[in-house]
C-alpha cells in the first residue's frame, strides 16, 4: 500500500484482561430475620443481584462451568469472569439462556448458588421475598421451572416477576407523587432481542408490545461474518469476544444510512471513516515495524536513487556481456562455416568418392547428405545472426542477399533423366540422392510460389479493408454531422456492451480460479469424465503386451465411453468429439477475444473523445477501472508481501454502520422481520391520536446496546415521516442503561407498598402451579391472574 495509515486510526487489539478477584461476601447480619427483599436481574449476558436496600448490585457474567482442579482433583464451580482463567473449563462453560429463552436450569441453579453465597446468606432457606426479571412474553415452561427452583430448592416466602424494560422506565420516572402514572414507549435493547412496550398511566400494555429477534449477540455474530467474508485468509482466528469488543468500541448508527453509503463512493471519504484494528503478530527480520509500506528499513531518497543507478549499471553490464557472447558465437559460426566451405571447395573435387566419405567421417559426418544439411543450417544461422546485429545497430532488417525469398540458384540433377540400365551401382545410389534433392527443390519452389500468392492475396485483402474502412468512416462522418447526439448515444451503447462483456469475462476467469465455484467444478467434472473414458479404453490395433501385433480385425469406432476389448480408439474422428475440449480449454479463445474487445473499445472511446464534447476521460473504461480500484483499495487496503503488521490488520469501514442498521432494516442481515420504525408504527396504530401523542412524547431507550452512538437520532429519523408534523417526538435514554432495571426493582421493593401484593406465595404456587403469576403493571400478562 502506498500511503501510510494515520496513527489515530490504528487501534491495537487489547489483550484479555485478568479477571478481578470478587469482593468478599457481604455481612448478612443486618438482613437476618429482616425479610429484606432480594432483587435478581437475570440477564442473558450479566446476572445482577443484591438486597433491595443496597445502592449498587453485585454482578457478573451469567456463565458457569464445573471444573476439577488438576493438583488436588477437587471439583470446583466457576462463575462469571473466573471461567476465563482456565482454558479447560472454558470449553465446558454453560449459560442459563439459549438465545432469548431460559432453558438451562442447572446453570441457573449454580449461578444462584454463587449469588446467595456472595450475599452471605447462611440459613437453610432463603427467608427473603424475591423480585426477579423475565423476558417479555416469556414461555410459561421457563417460568414454571424457575418457580419450582425458587420455591422447592430455596424455599423463598414469595416470588414476583417483572419485565426489565418497564422497571428501567420506572427508575427514570420524572413524575412527581407517590403513584406511578407516567406514559411512554419503552424500547428495550437486550442481548438476543429488542422489545417495544407501550406504557399508559403507569401500566405496561403488554398485549400491544412487540419484540424483534435482533440484539447485541446477533449484531456481534453479523460483524464477525462480515469480517470473515472480507478477510477469508486472515492470519489469526477472530473470536466472538474480539468481534464483540469491536462492535462495542467502533460501531455506530448513521442517521441516514443510504446517504452515508453514497458518500463512500469517494475513496477519501471511505478512508476517513475507517477504523483499523491491529492484531498481535510476530515480526520477522524482513518485516515492517508496523508501518504500511512493508519495508524493513526506511531508506532516504538519495539511497533509493543510488540503488536505482546501481541496478541500471548492472543491467548495462549484463547487456554488454550478452552482446559480447553473441558476437563470439557469431565469429565461431563464421569460422566453422569458412572451414566447411573450404573443405568442400578444395578437398572434394580432388579426391575419389571413397576418400571424400572417409574425410567426412574424420570430421564427424556420417555421409555427404548430413554434411550438406549441416552446411546449410550453419549458413542460415550466420545469416540470421548478422541480420539481428544490423537491427540492433539500427540498420535495415534485410541486407544484401539476406531476403528469404531471394532468387534460388537452380541446381543440376544430371543423373535423374538417365535410365537405370546405363548406370553402375554407385551412379544408381547417386541418382537416388539427386531424385530426393530434386523433390526437395521442387517442394521449396512450390512453397515459395504459395508464399508469393499469399502475399498478393494479403495485399489485396488489405487494400479492400482499407477501402471498406474509408467507406465506413465516410458513412460514420455523415451520420455524425446529421445527428451528433444519436451518433454519440449509439457509440456509448457499444462502449457499455463491450465493458459488460469484458467484466463478465473477468468474472468467469475469477470463477475458474476459485475451486469452489460452479464453473470450476463443472470443468473438473468434464476432465474427470475424459479421464474415466480414457481408462476404459483397452487394447486397440497396436502391439499387445506379449509382443504380438494386432490383426486389425473387428475395428470399430469408440465414443469415449464403454470401449472394450480390441476396439480401436477413434475419438476425434467426429467433430462433435472435440466439443468437450473446447468446453474445458477456453483460455486461448478468451485471451484473443479480450484483446479484440479491448482494441475495439479503445477505438470507440477515442472517437467519442474526439467528437463528443460530453464524453471525457472520466467516462473511459480505464478511468472507471481506476476509480473502482481506488474504492476497493480504500475498502480493503492491500499490503506488500513482507508487511506482517499490515497483514494482521482489520479495516472496518462500511461494517461499522451496517451492523447497527440491522435494528432498523433487519433484512440486510438476512432476518425476516420488521425494523424498529415499522414495529413502533404498528404499535401506535392501535391507539387513538390522543394516546399516540402521549406515547410518542416519551420514547425511552434502555439496555446496554442503547448506548451505541447515534441510535437516538436514527430512531427519530425513522419515526418522523410516520407521524403528523404537529406531533412532537421526544426520545431520551436511561441514566444507567445497564443497571437501571435492577435499581428500579430495588426502588419498587423498598418504596412501593404494592410490592407485598404482587408476589406469589408458596401456598399459591402449590395451589396454581409454577406457570402462574400475579398480573401487575410491571409484569407479563401470559399466565397471570
TrEMBL record:
Parts forming coiled coils: 446-481
Segments of skewed composition (Acidic residues): 400-409
UniProt feature, compositional bias: Polar residues: 1-13
Keyword Coiled coil among record annotations: yes
Database matches in InterPro entries: Actin (IPR004000), ATPase_NBD (IPR043129)
Biased composition (Gly residues): 549-559
Location of the region described as Disordered in the Swiss-Prot/TrEMBL record: 1-22, 385-429, 534-569
Biased composition (Basic and acidic residues): 385-394
Pfam families per UniProt: Actin
Protein name, entry field: Chromatin remodeling complex subunit
Amino acid at each position: 500500500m502506498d500511503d501510510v495509515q494515520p496513527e489515530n486510526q490504528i487501534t491495537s487489539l487489547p489483550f484479555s484482561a485478568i479477571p478481578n478477584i470478587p469482593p468478599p461476601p457481604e455481612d448478612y447480619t443486618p438482613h437476618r430475620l429482616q425479610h429484606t427483599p432480594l432483587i435478581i436481574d437475570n440477564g442473558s449476558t450479566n446476572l445482577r443481584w443484591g438486597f433491595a436496600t443496597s445502592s449498587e448490585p453485585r454482578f457478573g457474567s451469567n456463565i458457569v462451568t464445573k471444573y476439577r482442579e488438576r493438583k488436588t482433583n477437587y471439583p470446583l464451580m466457576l462463575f462469571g469472569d473466573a471461567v476465563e482463567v482456565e482454558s479447560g473449563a472454558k470449553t465446558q462453560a454453560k449459560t442459563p439462556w439459549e438465545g432469548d429463552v431460559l432453558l438451562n436450569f442447572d446453570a441457573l441453579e449454580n449461578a444462584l448458588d454463587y449469588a446467595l453465597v456472595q450475599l452471605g446468606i447462611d440459613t437453610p432457606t432463603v427467608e427473603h421475598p424475591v423480585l426477579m426479571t423475565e423476558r417479555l412474553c416469556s414461555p410459561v415452561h421457563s417460568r414454571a421451572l424457575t418457580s419450582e427452583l425458587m420455591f422447592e430448592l430455596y424455599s423463598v416466602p414469595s416470588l414476583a416477576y417483572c419485565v426489565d424494560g418497564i422497571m428501567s422506565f420506572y427508575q427514570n420516572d420524572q413524575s412527581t407523587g407517590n403513584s406511578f402514572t407516567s406514559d411512554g414507549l419503552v424500547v428495550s435493547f437486550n442481548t438476543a432481542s429488542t422489545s417495544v412496550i407501550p406504557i399508559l398511566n403507569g401500566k405496561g400494555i403488554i398485549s400491544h408490545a412487540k419484540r424483534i429477534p435482533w440484539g447485541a449477540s446477533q449484531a456481534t455474530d453479523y460483524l464477525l461474518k462480515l469480517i470473515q467474508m472480507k478477510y477469508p485468509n486472515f492470519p489469526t482466528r477472530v473470536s466472538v469476544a474480539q468481534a464483540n469488543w469491536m462492535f462495542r468500541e467502533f460501531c455506530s448508527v448513521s442517521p441516514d444510512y443510504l446517504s452515508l453509503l453514497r458518500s463512500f463512493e469517494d475513496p477519501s471519504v471511505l478512508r476517513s471513516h475507517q477504523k483499523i484494528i491491529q492484531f498481535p503478530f510476530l515480526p520477522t527480520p524482513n518485516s515492517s515495524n508496523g508501518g504500511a509500506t512493508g519495508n524493513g528499513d526506511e531508506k532516504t531518497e538519495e539511497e533509493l536513487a543510488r540503488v536505482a543507478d546501481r541496478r541500471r549499471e548492472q543491467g548495462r553490464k549484463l547487456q554488454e556481456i550478452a552482446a559480447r557472447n553473441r558476437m563470439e558465437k557469431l565469429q565461431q559460426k563464421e569460422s566453422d562455416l569458412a572451414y566447411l566451405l573450404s573443405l568442400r571447395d578444395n578437398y572434394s573435387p580432388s579426391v575419389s568418392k571413397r576418400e571424400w566419405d572417409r574425410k567426412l567421417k574424420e570430421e564427424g559426418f556420417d555421409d555427404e547428405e548430413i554434411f550438406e544439411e549441416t552446411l546449410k543450417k550453419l549458413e542460415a544461422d550466420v545469416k540470421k545472426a548478422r541480420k539481428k546485429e544490423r537491427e540492433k545497430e539500427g540498420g535495415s532488417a534485410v541486407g544484401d542477399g539476406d531476403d528469404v525469398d531471394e532468387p534460388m540458384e537452380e541446381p543440376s540433377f544430371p543423373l535423374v533423366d538417365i535410365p537405370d540400365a546405363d548406370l553402375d551401382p554407385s551412379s544408381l545410389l547417386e541418382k537416388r540422392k539427386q531424385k530426393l534433392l530434386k523433390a526437395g527443390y521442387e517442394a521449396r519452389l512450390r512453397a515459395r510460389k504459395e508464399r508469393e500468392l499469399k502475399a498478393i492475396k494479403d495485399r489485396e485483402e488489405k487494400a479492400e479493408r482499407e477501402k471498406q474502412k474509408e467507406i465506413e468512416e465516410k458513412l460514420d462522418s455523415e451520420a455524425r454531422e446529421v445527428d451528433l447526439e444519436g451518433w454519440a448515444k449509439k457509440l456509448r451503447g457499444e462502449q457499455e456492451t463491450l465493458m459488460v462483456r469484458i467484466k463478465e469475462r473477468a468474472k468467469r476467469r475469477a470463477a475458474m480460479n476459485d475451486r469452489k465455484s460452479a464453473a470450476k467444478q463443472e470443468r473438473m467434472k468434464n476432465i474427470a469424465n475424459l479421464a474415466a473414458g480414457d481408462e476404459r479404453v483397452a487394447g486397440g490395433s497396436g502391439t499387445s503386451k506379449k509382443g504380438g501385433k494386432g490383426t486389425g480385425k473387428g475395428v470399430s469406432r469408440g465414443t469415449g465411453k464403454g470401449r472394450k476389448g480390441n476396439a480401436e480408439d477413434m475419438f476425434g474422428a467426429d467433430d462433435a468429439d472435440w466439443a468437450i475440449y473446447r468446453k474445458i480449454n477456453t483460455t486461448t479463445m478468451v485471451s484473443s477475444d479480450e484483446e479484440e474487445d479491448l482494441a475495439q473499445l479503445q477505438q470507440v472511446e477515442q472517437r467519442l473523445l474526439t467528437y463528443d464534447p460530453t464524453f471525457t476521460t472520466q467516462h473511459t473504461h480505464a478511468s472507471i477501472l481506476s476509480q473502482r480500484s481506488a474504492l476497493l483499495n480504500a475498502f480493503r487496503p492491500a499490503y506488500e508481501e513482507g508487511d506482517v503488521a499490515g497483514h494482521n490488520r482489520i479495516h472496518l469501514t462500511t461494517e461499522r454502520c451496517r451492523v447497527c442498521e440491522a435494528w432498523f432494516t433487519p433484512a440486510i442481515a438476512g432476518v425476516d422481520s420488521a425494523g424498529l420504525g415499522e414495529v413502533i408504527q404498528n404499535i401506535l396504530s392501535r391507539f387513538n391520536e390522543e394516546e399516540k401523542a402521549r406515547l410518542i412524547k416519551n420514547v425511552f431507550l434502555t439496555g446496554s446496546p442503547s448506548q451505541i452512538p447515534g441510535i437516538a437520532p436514527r430512531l427519530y429519523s425513522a419515526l418522523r415521516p410516520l407521524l403528523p408534523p404537529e406531533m412532537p417526538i421526544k426520545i431520551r435514554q436511561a441514566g444507567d442503561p445497564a443497571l437501571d432495571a435492577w435499581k428500579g426493582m430495588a426502588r419498587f421493593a423498598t418504596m412501593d407498598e404494592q410490592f407485598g401484593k404482587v408476589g406469589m406465595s408458596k401456598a399459591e404456587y402449590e395451589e396454581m402451579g409454577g406457570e402462574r403469576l400475579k398480573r401487575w403493571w410491571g409484569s407479563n400478562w401470559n399466565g397471570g391472574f
